[in-house]
Amino acid sequence: GYTLDALGLPKFKYLTYGLSVKDATRVIDGGQGVQREIETEGSANDLYLCLAKANVIEQKDGKYVIADNAYSITVADEATLKPIIRTIQGTQELLVPFKSKVIYSILFNQ
């Protein structure tokens, strides 16, 4: 299901891996991208959230540049979440631990 915030924008609610999740996506001021905020209730030990998959993901200037500059991702509280880039069968994935709150932004590279 979902609820609406004060601006009338949806915050989706669902269950996954036994966790209650609230998930909201908002447009960043100026239309430069979108920000996603995911909150969980309960313990999410050893679960990871995949933020991106691409042939190439590079960490550069505080951002994760995806697929030859197609777009980039920033992770709020990066020092705590410690994103990792892993390669599986020639494809790279940007992962963060599925903690109580994950906030990240997808920025459109222009």
Order of helices and strands: EEEEEEEEHEEE
Structural class: mainly beta
The number of helical elements comes to 1
Roughly how many Å is the radius of gyration?
15 Å
The global form is globular
The low-confidence parts are: none
**How many β-strand stretches?**
11
Task: State the end-to-end distance.
Answer: 35 Å
* Beta-strand proportion: over 45%
Percentage of residues assigned to helices: under 10%
Widest sheet: strand ordering: 1-2-3-4-11-8-7-6
The largest β sheet comes out as: 8 strands, antiparallel
- Kindly report the average pLDDT value: 92
Which terms summarize this structure?
110 residues; 8-stranded antiparallel β-sheet; mainly beta; 3-stranded antiparallel β-sheet; 1 helix; single chain
Quick description:
The protein has 110 residues and is mainly beta.
Task: Describe, in plain words, how this protein is organized in 3D.
With 110 residues, the protein is mainly beta. The protein has one helix spanning 78-81, and strands at 2-4, 10-16, 19-27, 33-41, 48-54, 57-60, 63-66, 71-75, 84-88, 91-97, 101-108. Strands 1-2-3-4-11-8-7-6 form an 8-stranded antiparallel beta sheet, with no helix packed on it. It has a 3-stranded antiparallel beta sheet with strand order 5-10-9, with no helix packed on it. A hairpin with a 2-residue loop joins strand 9 (84-88) and strand 10 (91-97). The protein is globular and about 35 Å long. The relative contact order is 0.22.
